[in-house]
Amino acid sequence: MPRNNLRILLTAATTLALTTAVFGQSANPAWVDQLSRQLAVEKDCSVEYYVNMKEGELAGRLTLEARAQCADGRQFDGSLTDPADNFTISECGTQVC
């Protein structure tokens, strides 16, 4: 198997494992579906995957955060702090590492 194909398979397997781990630890994974629907309606974004998904607590209120990668290459950050019903969404700009 060529080296590039091996890298692609390894990357895909790692991504799947991490996604499974994140969803497995979520107290309420439905929030990801809610964010996907909101991104589709408000930003015309078909979400391919999420990164940096976080669930936490701030002053006794549930907080949810995730970065979405759209099929067209755009990225959005979504955050929600209970009792809000909708996510606050902001487009990610170009980043230099």
List the helices and strands and how they pair.
Blueprint: H1 3-25, H2 30-43, E1 47-58, E2 61-70, E3 75-81, E4 88-91
Antiparallel strand pairs: 1-2, 2-3, 3-4
Write up this protein.
There is one protein chain. The chain is of the alpha+beta class. It is built from two helices and four strands, in the order ααββββ. The chain has helices at residues 3-25, 30-43, and strands at residues 47-58, 61-70, 75-81, 88-91. Strands 1-2-3-4 form a four-stranded antiparallel beta sheet. β3 and β4 form a beta hairpin. The radius of gyration is 15 Å and the shape is globular. 13% of the residues are buried. The model is unreliable at 12-24 (pLDDT under 50).
Taking all residues together, what is the mean pLDDT? 80
Q: In what order do the strands lie side by side in the largest sheet?
A: 1-2-3-4
How much helix is in the residues?
Answer: 25-40%
- N-to-C SSE string, H for helix and E for strand: HHEEEE
Strand count, sense and barrel status of the largest sheet are: 4 strands, antiparallel
Global outline: globular
Rg to the nearest angstrom?
15 Å
What is the number of beta strands? 4
What would you call the structural class? Answer: alpha+beta
CA(first)-CA(last) distance: 31 Å
Number of separate helices: 2
Low-pLDDT parts are 12-24
